[in-house]
Amino acid sequence: PTLRRRLTVIAPVSLRFIAGVRLFAPGAARPVTVELTAARARAAGTVQLDAPAGWTVTPASQPFRLAAPGEHARFTFTVTAPAQPAVAPLGASVEVNGRRFDQQRVEVRYDHLPLQLLQPPARAKAVSLELATRGRHVGYLPGAGDDVAAALEQMGYEVTSLTGADLTPERLRGLDAVVIGIRAFNVRTDLAERLPTLFAYLDAGGTVVAQYNTLDGLREGWLAPFHLRLSRDRVTDEHAPVTILAPEHPVLTTPNRITAADFEGWVQERGLYFPAQWDERFTAILATGDVGETPLEGGLLAARYGKGYFVYTSLAWFRQLPEAVPGAYRLFANLVSLGK
After folding, report:
1. What is this structure's pTM?
2. What is the pLDDT of residue 3?
3. Residue 5 lies in a domain
4. How far apart, in whole angstroms, are the C-alpha atoms of residue 6 and residue 153?
5. Where are the alpha helices (H) located in the chain, listed in sequence order?
6. 151 & 231 share domain
7. Does 166 share its domain with 229?
8. What is the domain range of residue 184?
């Protein structure tokens, strides 16, 4: 049979930010790196970053020369944030033979689909915010896939990716906190047998933050010794009002004082698969709900366990952090900082 493939016109050079979000203290300067990839031989020109008023970028541009198709090169610029909190888009572009190009190039390849080529503008988000953190070393136990580990690195944490085999007393001892990725209890088969070790880490003073799971495949007592029964309830309105239930709990005070302003600018939804029942040792931190529905109180639950803290949260961190929502960063930093 005849094979057909759509003819796509591409730029001579594509661009990609190494980090999609970059956090800044107000008035601070940080490096921002963009990677160029040549689509043809002897591609040469200048590369520049674009930032809105109030942000400064140095140098204004840098020359580049890429000899062969597929060749990569990285260029780092210094970006300085304004003195006040702000969220800003950053753009990257190249000038080649008097023409400007700003496309990223993303190839989507699956065996059951024809090749899809996406060419969105190369963009990143810069956030100037007051953000305090405690602790330094965080272990991340991946679930079904999210970008929360990268967000923790942007906060300044040293993040170690963990496997089930890493959940040993020796491996956990040097970690200030362990964060469990979305739907990890649904997709991992190595968690159940390792939970006693994780709770021993908690008992000794560790902090564990578990993100949302669904009902699929959860066995009875999946979070023992805690009792937690999930529902299919979610809050679909990202602007849904949030009521603070425990204003003096360290989740909301340390090291960042959380206010109503931190729940502004959220995207797509507040959270999903909220717990319907939970162990009496948990404290419900906040309530939120869609218009006309009873507010849900299970989106952020925190409990002491021995000398440590266990947090179960159905809030949609996997959406908020990659979208550079300042309040989400401040609140998540508090979760990881518990007990420090």
Report:
1. 0.94
2. 67
3. no
4. 39
5. 148-155, 169-172, 184-187, 195-203, 250-253, 317-320, 326-337
6. yes
7. yes
8. 137-337
Mean pLDDT computed over every residue of the chain: 96
Compute φ and ψ for 14, nearest 5 degrees.
Answer: -105, 160
Domain count, the chain: 2
Where on the phi/psi map is residue 42: left (φ > 0), alpha (ψ -120 to 50), or beta?
left
1 assigned to some structural domain: no
Chain segment 285-326, per-residue pLDDT in tens:
999 999 999 999 999 999 999 999 999 999 999 999 999 999
Largest distance between two CA atoms of the chain: 69
Distance CA 33, CA 64 (A): 14
Question: Does one domain contain both 151 and 271?
Answer: yes
Statement to judge: residues 175 and 113 lie in one domain? no
In this structure, is residue 21 part of a structural domain?
A: yes
The span from the CA of 239 to the CA of 243, in Å, is: 12
Helix (H) or strand (E) holding 73: strand 72-80
**8: in domain:** no
Are 23 and 154 a contacting pair, CB within 8 Å? yes
Q: How many H helices and E strands in the chain?
A: 7, 25
- The two structure tokens encoding residue 80: 């300085």
In degrees to the nearest 10, what's the CA dihedral of 43, 46, 51, 53?
A: -150
Q: Do 192 and 321 fall within a single domain?
A: yes
DSSP structure string for 173-209: TT-SEEEE-TTHHHH-SSSGGGHHHHHHHHHTT-EEE
CA distances from 189 to 143, 149, 192, 219, 222 (A): 11, 21, 7, 11, 12
